[in-house]
Amino acid sequence: MKDAHRFEAAAAGPGGGAVFAAWERFVRGEDQVPGVRPLVAISWHRCREQYRVDPHLSAAPVAAVERRHTPEHDVVFAELGFRAAAVAQEMACLPGIVTVTDAGGRVLAEWGDPATLARATELNLAPWFCWSECAVGTNGIGTALDAHGPVLISGAEHWCRAFHDWVGAGIAVRDVVTGEPIGSLNLSCWRGRLPPSAGGWLANAVAIAQRALKRRARDSGAELVAAYTQAGAHSSAPLAAVDTAGKAVIADDTASVLMGVPASTPAVDATLRWNPGLPELIGAARQASKQAAHNPDWVGSTQIFTHLADEPTAISIRPVFSFSHLIGHLVSFGVSDGAQLPQAEAPARPRVPPRRVIGMRDNRMVLLGLPEVSFAESEGNDVWLSTEQGRLRAASPSLDKLDTELAEAGFLRVHRRYVVNLSRIREIERGHKGELRLVMDDGANAMVPVSRRNAPAVRRALSI
Questions:
Q1: pTM for this structure?
Q2: How many domains does the chain have?
Q3: Do the beta carbons of residue 171 and residue 149 sit within 8 Å?
Q4: Residues of the chain by 3-state class (helix, strand, coil), percent to 5
């Protein structure tokens, strides 16, 4: 309900002419956008700096690649289609349409007022066209796929001038295991207003669509625990079971220490998952999922850094299936059975290092030059930036995401809770057991710990 309340507040009006004036300035290259909601301002920043979307684009492009869906995702799309068709009848009195998209923003189907459908077609708001943020900038569909909860984009808040006569509201359906978007449900109207109840309706529709995913996650968790128990009876190697996203479902005492997750003997509720905070393990699990999709008998091995070692540890990964459907993997530590896991694929498009980091002060977006940021710290569900303007909450939703964005811009992950600006390290302190701590040049001489597994990377980066 909290998301729905935020949606209703935004529906009261985004500022009209003031927002358009801010849009004009931002498109010309200025950074100050007073009167623009933080959600929108951050999206504009992505569109201009990262995606390089032409704000004068007149229509959406054709979706480049058709995405393949799992049977569970097909069930979600069927449910979304049913909900969309039902609400289209309720919106008959409004000049509105309802659309369902996949995770890439490709429109799969739409329903609604014939006149509005015709207008939407002129902009390619129609099946087989792409409405992701990287394709058409800020809009109800694409921005919802990058956010959590209902999103409303109204008038001049759209990145492309051609869409300023539209109001769009969307919400993403996310996989309950990976957190990645599966698709979205969206309401759009031309030169009108969506009712304040639209946000609540979207949230309820998505909650219903995700019930099948939650049931499947519970069942697959129980099956992974059973596979773990059976394998553990025939092996003495440290063992863990992870889902397809690399999150731990269950681990024995030794594996739990290596992964930094709770030990589960006996097994706890199979619906619980833990993030091990080991990017290499998560990447290996995802690569293993791709291999297993082509060859169910595949078993692989690779080496990863764990939380207690300066050197990489060998692991073996064995996929676990349920009725021919991949549900996760068994990970054995200190074992090198199976084919060598391929290296992660290069990204489809070259990543452009950001020029700025975005911080939040109350409802105001603060654009920070990279030299202004000393370090980032994960605290609970938030990421905080130590900056020359004080301690600010980062716009980035996770430290992992921020680390990825800044990896090629002189920042380094030194601890599961810290990413530091290498140019802002003033001193290095060695403990009596060889552990490292970084003294930061941030006015307060903050001390940032270096974990044992990250120490070699720090020494290489600082040439010590």
A1: 0.71
A2: 3
A3: yes
A4: 35, 30, 35
Residues 141 and 232 in one domain: no
Rounded CA-CA distance 436/414 in Å is 10
Question: Based on the domain organization, do 441 and 331 belong to the same domain?
Answer: no
Query: Of 142, 174, 209, which residue sits at a domain end?
Result: 209
Residue (of 51, 181, 178, 205) closest to 103 by Cα position: 181
Within 10 A of 15 (CB to CB), how many other CB atoms are there? Answer: 18
Flag whether 349 is in a domain: no
Asked whether residue 347 is domain-assigned, the answer is: no
pLDDT tens by residue, 229-262? 999 999 999 999 999 888 899 999 999 888 888 8
Task: Give CA–CA dist 148/222, Å, rounded.
Answer: 28
Which pair of structure tokens corresponds to residue 382? 């938030």
Asked if 129 and 63 count as a contact pair (C-beta separation under 8 A), the reply is: yes
Q: Are residues 177 and 323 in the same domain?
A: no
Residues 52-80: b if buried by 16+ CB within 10 A, e if exposed: ebebebebbeebeeeeebeebbebbbebb
Residues 145 and 180 in one domain: yes
Range of the domain at 222: 218-340
**Domain contains 88:** yes
> Is residue 454 a contact partner of residue 460, using CB atoms and an 8 Å limit?
no
Helices (H), 29-90: 38-45, 71-90
Closest C-alpha among 411, 427, 410 to residue 419: 411
Residue 381's contacts (CB-CB under 8 Å, 6 or more residues apart) are: none
Q: What is the CATH number of the domain that holds 277?
A: 3.30.450.20
Of 284, 287, 313, 316, the residue nearest 299 (C-alpha)? 316
Distance (Å, rounded) from C-alpha 389 to C-alpha 192? 41
**What CATH number has the domain bearing residue 205?**
3.30.450.40
Residues 68 and 105 in one domain: yes
The domain boundary residue, chosen from 180, 209, 238: 209
Distance from C-alpha of 323 to C-alpha of 89, rounded to nearest angstrom: 39
Q: What is the enclosing helix (H) or strand (E) of 190?
A: strand 181-190
pLDDT tens digits, 12-49: 444 568 999 999 999 998 887 888 998 899 899 889 98
- Tell me what pLDDT residue 71 has: 64
Determine, yes or no, domain membership for 49.
yes
Cα 63 to Cα 135, 225, 356, 421, 434: the distances in Å are 9, 39, 30, 38, 53
Contacts 24+ apart (CB under 8 A), 86-92: 87/187, 87/201, 87/205, 88/112, 91/187, 91/189
Q: Which residue, among 298, 377, 307, 381, has the nearest Cα to 341 in the 3D structure? A: 298
Q: Report whether 458 contacts 414 (CB < 8 A).
A: yes
